[in-house]
Predict the 3D structure of the following.
Amino acid sequence: MRSLVAERGAYAERRRLLPVVAAQGPLPERPRTRADCERVPRPCPYVGCKHNLYLDVTRSGGIRLAFPGREPADMPAAGSCALDVAEEGGVSLRQIGRLMGYTRARIGQLLDDALEHLRASREEE
């Protein structure tokens, strides 16, 4: 549970940022297809999109910031969307780790877990 001081601080921060966000103008309509997505300026401002790399969903379903000291607008243009990275192709574990804020070793562990999950699901069929 957040403290009252933290709640007041978050509220004050939202009030402070409101004029800044309003001055930037409205965002284009949220993309529905990959073709629509390509017209959105990068870094992608839609942090709620499942392909955006700014937020990370934990195994328990919680949400964490993948880059705690960075704002969405500060994300690298070529690394704000998983679909952009996938289209680029040929990305090393080190590059993936840099984009996602993990070490190369951790990305290797995640890859091994994903491959094991795929093998297990194939055996069930």
In short: The mean pLDDT is 79. The two ends are 43 Å apart (CA to CA). The chain has one domain: 4-28+38-124. The longest helix spans residues 104-124.
